[in-house]
Amino acid sequence: MKKKFLFLLLLLSGTFLFAEDGYDLWLRYKPVNKIVLSKYKQAIQALHIPGTSQTITAAKEELITGLKGLLQTSILLTTTIKNNGTIVAGTSSSSPVIKSLDLQSDLSKIGNEGFLIFSKTINGKNCIVITANTDIGILYGVFHFLRLLQTEQSLDNLNLSSSPKLQLRLLNHWDNLNRTVERGYAGFSLWNWHTLPGLIDKRYIDYARANASIGINGTVLTNVNANATILTAPYLTKVAALANTFRPYGIKVYLTARFSAPIEIGGLKTADPLDEGVRNWWKEKAREIYSYIPDFGGFLVKANSEGQPGPQDYKRTHADGANMLADAVAPFNGIVIWRAFVYAAENPVDRHKQAYDDFVPLDGKFRSNVMVQVKNGAIDFMPREPFHPLFGAMPKTPLVMEFQVTQEYLGQATNLVYLAPLFKEVLDSDTYSNGKGSTVAKVIDGSLNNHRLSGMAGVSNIGNDINWCGHPFAQSNWYALGRLNWDYNLSSEKIADEWLRMTFTNNGSFISSAKKMMLESRDIMVQYSNPNGLHHIMGTGHHYGPAPWVSNLNRPEWNPVYYHKADSIGLGFNRTSTGSNAIAQYFPEARKLWEDINSCDEKYLLWFHHVSWNFKMKSGRTLWNELCFQYYTGTERVKQMQQSWNVLKQFVDVDRFEHVKQLLGIQYNEAVWWRNACLLYFQTFSKMPIPSHYEKPDKTLEYYKSLRFPFAPGN
Ligand code: GCW
After folding, report:
1. pTM greater than the 0.90 cutoff
2. What domains are defined for the chain?
3. Cα(301) to centroid of ligand 1, in Å?
């Protein structure tokens, strides 16, 4: 009785929001607000979606579920158009009504995956048409239509045409066969290899739905630090089960190929790519894989990098290795995505330069079904990094962008960091390779150099945590990867807006404050961890938290001191002509932004220059005082994020509200930790005081140095 009373009270006070665990991601389909609802109920009264393919069935089910949730009523399924407000969905082959509309000229412009959504009178009835050239286009159109409703957009006079800018829109899972995830902070791998193929977890289907809803069309299931076992028959049966589950949602599977597999599972003596036996082994292996998975996407390969085997073990080039695999998958229309993330401990050259040095000479030497996958920057997914100089420098090779959605260096799963601004910053950067306007986006979409293939990949942040990504806001980064892959011209703001509306609520006050938090979050993270171009000063191995003092690792380039080069004179890595000259790998016009220490964009100052502690910054502060300013301001801004979130309590269910609140508490402590540890350490070189108006670090440098995290996740 008491409970009932409390429930009623909460309901009446309007503050009762059912607890949510985040499992539904942005596909919650909660009821729209009352005013919108009455309009939608006019516009949507029936559904006409003939066709029985698995993809059309998935589209139909999604519409039924979505509309039921959003409009709180079951939708009438019709075989003819006899109601106003009928949604008519299908291709000209699945739907005679669509065929009769004669849409050829519009459809010819949208390719295999695009869709059209428009209002139209059919048989005298007002209808909404969702059509495409293929069934998967219909599914994408359906998700887009549902997004319009979820974000409470008007349905009047619809006239939309949309198709993806990039062809391969990929997730890269760094998932190991024992279910640990390299740099994964959201639990274990989704793929339960032990129970596959017998058990198809509902999560696999929801994963596919979520991906299809944002246009992701390929998934690399396994870690680039590869295990050859995935290529054996028992595992291929498991992979096939996943491929069958994902296929209706337009998602192809890819695997990572361990270069030494012919030795490890094939019993050969060598993995030399020019050896006939090895070449034949891979050809046979490809044939076998395609017998299980006829639409297998292909291989992703990390070779001769961080201890992985590769063609250079046999004095062959990356092109020799990639081409061998490309020849094996070519008969089945497979592709090889070869990673350019290479650097060698034995190579004394600035790590920044090594991938470019290795790959530029190979431009033009790859088979036509090889793509080279390049990380967004030359070092490694840093909080802020200039774009990779390979973009624009390999005109004859299609390059795939590799972003990291999992936040290895950006606060992992404890920090709220919305990554769309990072992705956009890189995509919008001008390489000047073909003159002004040669943006990274135009390099990877193939338009600058007329490539047949194009693509963008994101290292996944998905695990088996109930909310998929660990931090409730980390879901937005998965979402953003898909949306930008579909259309890199979307703004970070628009993507955040959509995601917030679908994930939380359409309430305007909530949206404006939460969006502000998201849009500032990446800058804030940079500010309290790696301001002004500092990079790779994270803890050893796990990369959790600061450790700029580390200098004892075997490989020089794994030591933070390698990157910040603090000394009594100043701070930063001189990559200009008087230093490593990595800057010369950029086109002259691009270089201009950074070349001159006095005009260098200060976001990248310490990336390209060794700067004296007394150097006058644009703010008028010395470098040392500027660092103090950045670290203290960034930390303070986390406190502001906490305050902003607290005010939003009334709009968010208790569970997710508390979850984010507590994580922001952790983030604040981590920001203080970054600030204090870094400033105390750099102070041992600058010998300058932290300005007295800042609160003094309450712990010593020794304390910070003594911290250990033996079981930090993802390592
Ligand atoms: O960012 C580094 C990570 C490694 C990763 C490597 C890579 C898969 O610390 O864990 O290995 O990059 O991208 O290959």
Report:
1. yes
2. 25-162 (3.30.379.10), 172-194+217-485 (3.20.20.80), 527-573+610-706 (3.90.1330.10)
3. 13
